[in-house]
Amino acid sequence: MDSELRQQVDISVLMPVYNAERTLLPAMWSVLNQSYENFEFLIYLDGATDNSERIINQFSDPRIKVFSSTENKGIVFARNELIKHAAGGYLAWLDADDIWLPGKLAAQKEYLDVHPEIKILATYVQVRNHQQISEVRWPVKPAILDAWLFFRNPLVQSSIMFRSNLKGPTYEQKFEYLEDYKFYSNLLGKKSIAIYPQVLCSYYEDTEKQRIDKYIKYDFVGKLEQIMRTNFSILGIQTGKNEIALVREFLRGKAILKEESATIVYHFLHKVESQNRKLKVFETSSLKSIILWQKLRLAKVSPDLRLKILGGFLAKPWLFMAAKKARVLYK
Length: 331
Known about the structure:
Blueprint: H1 3-8, E1 11-17, H2 24-32, E2 39-46, H3 52-56, E3 64-69, H4 75-85, E4 90-93, E5 99-100, H5 104-114, E6 120-128, E7 133-137, H6 142-151, E8 161-163, H7 179-185, E9 193-204, H8 208-217, H9 220-233, H10 241-252, H11 259-279, H12 284-301, H13 303-315, H14 318-324, E10 329-330
Helix pairs in contact: 6-12, 10-11, 11-12, 12-13, 12-14
């Protein structure tokens, strides 16, 4: 890519493609129909064996540039290859089964132009599956998102736009399928991630069987726990195998917890808050709001601790308002 073109392109849109013939056409149209037009559209065709290549070749838009491999090398390899070729000051991902809503690129570029402290900007998302369409709205305040990232991934990859100078740590192959969460976790404690408060991305959600198959194929649990341990170590917290498994299950699911298991999670939350008061990695009030929100969730899944937890909230009603700052809305 010559230097003149690098100066002309504001945004690099990056799309890895592998056997996406059923969803590729609307995904591509959602990019090409954006109101903001000063972008390049880089596609990595990752050893596809279906009609994906034929669909891509239907388009004659000069902004489209296609890179390809004769063999499937995986999503992490594809992402890193696309980053190598990106010329824009901002990079935006779109997976081939997702869709952007009108105005996404324009809104995110305008926001990032006036907020230089923000390195990654996501959006509210619409979630589609074979049964329904819903919306997911995480808190948008950078300090709260920063603290949320400590516990779990609040961002949808296809919704993000990030600054090209973040190409530094690229995606790590050993975290394939969770490479995005590992990538974002490099910014823990920086308050440099935000969410644009508008639904501008439509995300396709796998079926339960597809998720289970991927969990097994990519060792989802093992990789997630490795990321969690690294995140927790920022506060000097070491977790044993049983403890981290309970915390992981609690953060991601709604299983009913027996008193012994719930108590372990309860003490873990207290440990996080206590360590942060000492080390001041996260904004105190933001982390506290998430801890309070997690305690409300814990009260729902642990009948044995319910009275103890809710009693604390009833004694101090202002805690409910603090917890609401961190809540995630599903509509």
